[in-house]
Each structure stands twice: as structure tokens, then as C-alpha cells.
Amino acid sequence: MCGRFSLRVAQEEIEQLEGHDASPAEWERRDNFVPRYNIAPHTHVPVLRRREHNNSEVILSTMKWGLVPHYAKFEDKSLSTTNARAESLVDGGGMWGSIKGAKRCAIPCQGYYEWLTKGKSKLPHFIKPKDGRLLLMAGLWDVVQLQGASHNVSLLRSHHFIDQSEPLWTFTVVTTTANSAMSWLHDRQPVILHTPEALAVWLDTSSQKWSTDLVKLLGPTKYPLDCYQVPPEVGKVGTESPTFIEPVATRKDGIQAMFAKQKPKAASSSSSQVRVASPQKQAPKRKHGSESEDEIEILDGPPSPKKAQHLQPTPSPKAKEA
């Protein structure tokens, strides 16, 4: 699965896409994107796609993560469309069947996060290309003109919808079986478009059809990746810090941050007080069959005031959302 990734780089670096042989002619809705180390679902990020009426032209288009199909009347946030399983694309049908032939995209990122499950704990890891390039994840996109922005039951029963003047552009990340080098971490990983040839095939929607050449891209690749444990604070949506993409061992408190549970310190002979470890947050309940994980268990207590200075949330982009 892929439920979190990082793209905190200069916009010029995104536009250049060094090493991918792609030169976007335009960046639609550029101002809707805010660079972040901790990108979660429902965030607006740039994706690479072909222009609808000129398939030879590649453009960047800022879209909201979590696909809303073109036939939707309102944005139902109970749906899990953060990821699309590659197997579902191959089998055909379903909600992906109507868009996989004509609406494919690639999502640039520095790398993505995955959580290693150890007993009741989840240890966050960051996965990035060894060669330092931006990683391109395969995706699907769609656009819809919503009649309403709420899935509130009372509003639906009264057939009262809120007018939407702007279309909503959204995307999903395609995932596949993890390769042998990453299967110890999780059984799923994003489909990675690691060569210019793979990117060109995936973005070529001139035929408006699905093909065997596209199916070949959906398997796990052996693209060289670095993987290391990172601070548990990344599990909280809205937190931001450059340390989120750095190995936890390089932090000054690296040894402490590496372990989920801290033993309480025994009281000294001169004090009757005992310092108890911060209480653990209850692990979230995951939806059946969902590959989306917006909230990850925080492995240690709230950060100290000193740490909190580095963990201030980045303001959300001022975009029109459904």
C-alpha cells in the first residue's frame, strides 16, 4: 500500500524531473500545491499526465489524493480510493475500468513511507531511490463536477446539494505485490515507473485502451531503493519536519526515538516520585479491504516542547475542495 509520501522540494526540481526524460509544458493549479515532508490522503499534489486534447504534450496537474469518480454526485469520504490494486486493473471492471485506458498519471515524490508491524507496534520506514532522483509512482486520475460536497445523510435525504463552481481533480496510487527486497516490510508497494520508457508507455493514452504492455508495468520492479527507520512522529497527519525523511539513527535522540516504549525511571532515594512513560495511543481501526491508512499509531508520547518547535503543521493549500 501507499498511504503517505514526501515531496518537499523546489518547484523547479519537480518541473525538470531530472533523469525521467519528461518536460512538462504547463503546471495546472500550481498554487494549490504546498511542499510537504508528510503528505497524507486528501492533500493536493502535482501529478504528471498527458493533456486530454493533445496526447503528445505532457503537463503537471495539481490534484487531490483520493480518487472521486466522474459519475459521483458528491464526495463520499467513506470510500477508500487512496490506492488502486494492480490486480483490479488487470481483472477489469469496477470503478477503475472506465478510466484505466484514458486517465493514467505518474506521481512524483522523494520517497514513500511504510510501517513495519512488530507485535502491537508500527515502526515507520522511508523508502527512496538510491540514485537520488524523484520517484515516479503509477496512478490513475479523474475529474468530476460535483453537485454537492457533503455526504451528510440528512442533506442527501432532502436532496439538497451544494453547488460546485469548479471541477474536482483527483488521483489514486496504483499498488502491486512487494518485491523480494521489500516484502519484509509490507506485502504491497507502489508501482514504480523507474525508466523513461516505462513512463512513456504508462502516460500514452492515445489509444484510449488498456493493453498487455501496460500490464507488464504492474509487476514489482527491482529498482534500487534505500529503506530505513524514521521518527514515529511522521505517523500524525499534519506534522512536518525534515527529520521525517532522515534515518532515525542520525537524530540526537536516535536511540530513544528508535524504541516505541520507554521504561519508567525508578525513583531515586531522595524522591518519592516516579516518572512514568507517556501513555500509548490506541491503534486505529482499519476499514475492511482498505489500503488507506491516514492515521498511524504514534509509538511514543507527545513530543517535548523543544521537539514541538520542529513539528508545527504546514498550512493547508488554499484550494477549493469538495
TrEMBL record:
UniProt biased composition (Low complexity): 265-280
Coiled coil start-end: none
InterPro entries: SRAP (IPR003738), SRAP-like (IPR036590)
Keywords carried by this UniProt record: Covalent protein-DNA linkage, DNA damage, DNA-binding, Hydrolase, Lyase, Protease
GO MF assignments: lyase activity; peptidase activity; single-stranded DNA binding
Record-linked Pfam families: SRAP
A Gene Ontology BP annotation from the UniProt entry: proteolysis
Gene3D superfamilies: SOS response associated peptidase-like (3.90.1680.10)
Region (Disordered): 262-322
Protein family: Belongs to the SOS response-associated peptidase family.
Identification of the protein by name: LigB domain-containing protein
Organism in which the protein naturally occurs: Mycena indigotica
Lineage: Eukaryota, Fungi, Dikarya, Basidiomycota, Agaricomycotina
